């Protein structure tokens, strides 16, 4: 018999404020508080389409190797420090389902500025908005994965990585794509961004590709060139040019 969506990963224990570090369990998506304000919606849209095609048993198999790492702190709240794109994609595809999580740290005794200073010291918070402005007070962080904004340059960094413009460095993986996004933000400007009249923040790369394919191809090629240039040396996963 097929599982119901709310039974996916139901064999895992429920995580609570007292769950110790290293505990593998489950939480609802609505329990997870983001540690960044934006995602690349192009990547999200691709993930949503793939998730919708999966049966619940296939979804369980898909999720278990992609366990969401969480920090418990600030009075029993659960902060995801990776897999924001996966989480918002699951919300859009399946609603408020339970997902497998791993307690990376239980800092429930730490709160307020002390909590956020500790998070920042571990590079587990990205206090910038979707336009790259910041750092901002962590009180401005989104409170739910469904509210994450769209960052076009986070999408661009993902697309360049998918084309092997750089690699995901396991030693510096968290927020690496945002660092690449910041690099591209001042160097790659699409014509559609200059003529946009409304809902500009919601614009995706796919929107640009459909509206102006020639400009899209030119700017994507330029981004890939920049990713291998000396200007990008020092960014996480930089591979440069061969030969």
Automatic annotation (TrEMBL):
InterPro entries: ParB/Sulfiredoxin_sf (IPR036086), ParBc_2 (IPR014956). Gene3D superfamilies: Conserved hypothetical protein from pyrococcus furiosus pfu- 392566-001, ParB domain (3.90.1530.10), DNA helicase RuvA subunit, C-terminal domain (1.10.8.10). This is ParB-like nuclease.
């Amino acid at each position: 018999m097929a599982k119901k969506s709310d039974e996916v990963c139901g064999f895992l224990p429920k995580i609570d404020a007292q769950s110790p570090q290293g505990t593998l369990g489950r939480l609802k998506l609505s329990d997870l508080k983001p540690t960044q304000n934006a995602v690349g919606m192009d990547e999200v849209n691709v993930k949503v389409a793939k998730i919708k095609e999966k049966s619940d048993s296939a979804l369980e198999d898909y999720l278990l190797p992609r366990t969401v790492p969480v920090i418990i702190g600030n009075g029993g709240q659960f902060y995801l420090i990776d897999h924001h794109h996966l989480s918002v994609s699951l919300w859009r595809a399946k609603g408020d389902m339970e997902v497998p999580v791993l307690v990376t740290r239980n800092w429930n005794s730490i709160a307020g500025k002390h909590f956020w200073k500790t998070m920042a010291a571990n590079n587990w918070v990205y206090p910038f908005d979707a336009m790259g402005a910041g750092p901002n007070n962590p009180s401005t962080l989104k409170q739910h994965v469904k509210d994450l904004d769209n960052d076009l340059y986070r999408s661009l960094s993902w697309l360049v990585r998918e084309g092997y413009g750089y690699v995901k460095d396991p030693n510096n993986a968290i927020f690496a794509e945002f660092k690449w996004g910041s690099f591209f933000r001042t160097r790659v400007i699409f014509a559609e961004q200059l003529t946009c009249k409304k809902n500009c923040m919601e614009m995706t790369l796919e929107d640009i590709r459909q509206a102006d394919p020639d400009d899209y191809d030119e700017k994507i090629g330029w981004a890939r060139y920049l990713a291998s240039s000396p200007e990008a040396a020092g960014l996480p996963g930089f591979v440069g040019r061969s030969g």
